[in-house]
Amino acid sequence: MDAHRRPLIDRTPALLAEGYAWLPNRMRDSNGSVLRTRLLGRPALAVRGPEAVRFFYDESHVRRHGAVPAPVLDTLFGQGAVHTLDGDAHRTRKELFLPLLEADPVARLTDHVTTAWDEAVRSWSERDRVVLFDEAAVVLTRGVRDWAGLPPRSFDAEPLALDLVAMVDGFATPGPRHLRARRARARQETRMARLVEEVGSGDLVAPADSVLERVARHRDPAEGPLDSRTAAVELLNVLRPTVAVSWFVAFAAHALHRWPAHRERLRGGDAEFATAFAHEVRRFYPFAPFLGGRTVTGLTWHGESVPAGGILLLDVYGQNHDEELWGDPYAFRPERLLDRPPGRDELIPQGGGDPAAGHRCPGERVTVGLLEALAVRLARLEYTVPEQDLRIPLRRIPTRPRSGFAVTGDALPDRASAHPSTTRQATTRTGPVG
């Protein structure tokens, strides 16, 4: 029987078992940059590479409406979110976010977050042990809460951080983590919807041109003002991905522990190196395994086909570790991104294409800006890394160092005049990614 006519076995169980390695392993076995498979009961085509990124983001090929599984909507994105829209509806809704993600607003958000970080660091010396993932989540929540215009008295940072982390942590797995994510989203959507209603009724005045004020007054041309629940969803779609940067902060700490030579250039204030370091953290460490959409029509890519109504997958983790693109991709080497800044559709940890017109995450600039600032601050801290489990399991989506990266010691901000050699090095070996 012709290989293209053989029934495809559904690989969803293998995805759940193998995590990030599932698609790259299958792509490697196929000896190419395309793979026919079956996922979630549908025929699927997986692609990789800059040319494939452009193919994937062509709206005549793929639609998002109906493509995101309900469990992901009920945890990560929310029902009716911008991620589920196509065409003009998507572009119009995205205009809600784009002005907030220009250079000046991002700089203000970074200022809020770094102020919260510096305040938190001053208290760490009083504690026996600090878990950086958990602390970063609270710091990021406090910063984005204040920047977005949420009233601090009504939204305490620690419980809000727990819920925002839960939404990300449980979107891709069955079981207790998923149930926590669902409960967290339901709880926060209710609270955010009530907040939007208070702004709409005049009971609460939102700061001018804040995220809260923009969401409360946004109008979709076809639908009119957002209902309070959809507005709550989109408000969370600013808060949640900002707090998700805590994953990258933990990865940055992991990288500085394994390759401490990078610490000196970060401590010295080399801005170009800080950017390259942030990009290399996003490239090297696993976050999104792949992206998917529903095929509008039958598609063929490099000789492999998928029918209309099937699934097109973009192999994000595999592309970020593609030897042809990166050369020695499993080496952590920020210098590679100084030598040759990546093209738009080469480095895709948060998707590819044009963020203004397409589905690439418009918050990518936020992620990079925050990671640059916090990586420098991590490099300037004095701390010891005690014995702990620093392995990063690829079967877990989203993954992170198992211990969350705990530190002990003074954890005080390094003074500008201090020599880099004053930073105490770790007392334990770091386990490999895997």
From TrEMBL:
**What InterPro entries does the database record attribute to this sequence?**
Cyt_P450 (IPR001128), Cyt_P450_E_grp-I (IPR002401), Cyt_P450_sf (IPR036396)
Q: Which cofactor does it need?
A: heme
Which residue intervals make up region (Disordered)? 404-434
Biased composition of type Polar residues is found at 419-434
The protein's UniProt keywords, in alphabetical order, are:
Heme, Iron, Metal-binding, Monooxygenase, Oxidoreductase
Task: Name the family.
Answer: Belongs to the cytochrome P450 family.
This protein is called Cytochrome P450
Q: Which organism is it from?
A: Streptomyces violaceorubidus
Query: Source taxonomy lineage?
Result: Bacteria, Bacillati, Actinomycetota, Actinomycetes, Kitasatosporales
